Amino acid sequence: MSEAKKNVERTRHIFEEMARTGGPQPLLDEMADDAVYKLSLPKGTPLSGEFRGMHAIREYFDQLEEVLEILVVNTWDFVGNGDQVIVLGDEQFVVKKTGKTCYSEFAFILDFSGGKIVRVLVIEDLSGVVEAYSSASSRVASRASGA
């Protein structure tokens, strides 16, 4: 089996185990110690930024539990190309600060090296999180500007 296919199968297994257990440990177990985890999320929320190394990534997932209650996660495609796997899916979650339920499609891009995940980039509409953590004046300005 090619390394690309192995990476797709590893990724599929990780997401199946996370769905089964309801937590991030299956992903964490497959990450390199110096891995990087990043969301496509503007500054200003507890989930914003780039998390480098296992300690920071674990802190991210602790923050995630405080910010969101994830209700449903569906994955529908796993596409591999060499050392990179893209996972397409959607999820429904509640932003705890506002109680707002949100639905969003996502793409996880995982980069592998030596069988371990070295980088994760999550591209997703997390505007419900941004709204919850932005100040009232910036929300008014944002709406007024059409953003």
Strand order of the largest sheet: 2-1-6-5-4-3
Total count of domains: 1
Number of E-state strands: 6
Query: How many alpha or pi helices?
Result: 5
Order of helices and strands: HHEEHEEEEHH
CATH fold node name: Nuclear Transport Factor 2, Chain: A
SSE-based structural type: alpha+beta
What's the N-to-C terminus distance? Answer: 47 Å
Shape descriptor: globular
Query: What about the largest sheet?
Result: 6 strands, mixed
Using only CA atoms, what is the Rg?
A: 16 Å
Q: How much is the average pLDDT?
A: 89
Helix content: 25-40%
Give the low-confidence spans. Answer: 136-147
Which CATH C-level class is it? Alpha Beta
Query: Which band does the percent of strand residues land in?
Result: 35-45%
Under the CATH scheme, the architecture is Roll
Structure, described:
Strands 2-1-6-5-4-3 form a 6-stranded mixed beta sheet. With 147 residues, the chain is α+β, with helices and mostly antiparallel strands. The protein has one domain (3-144): Roll (Nuclear Transport Factor 2, Chain: A), CATH 3.10.450. It is built from 5 helices and 6 strands; from the N terminus they run ααββαββββαα. The protein has helices spanning 3-21, 25-29, 53-67, 127-133, 136-144; strands at 31-39, 50-52, 68-81, 84-95, 100-113, 116-124. Mean pLDDT is 89; it is low at 136-147.
Which labels suit this protein?
41% strand, six-stranded mixed beta sheet, alpha+beta, 147 residues, 5 helices, Nuclear Transport Factor 2, Chain: A
Topology:
Layout: H1 3-21, H2 25-29, E1 31-39, E2 50-52, H3 53-67, E3 68-81, E4 84-95, E5 100-113, E6 116-124, H4 127-133, H5 136-144
Parallel strand pairs: 1-6
Antiparallel strand pairs: 1-2, 3-4, 4-5, 5-6
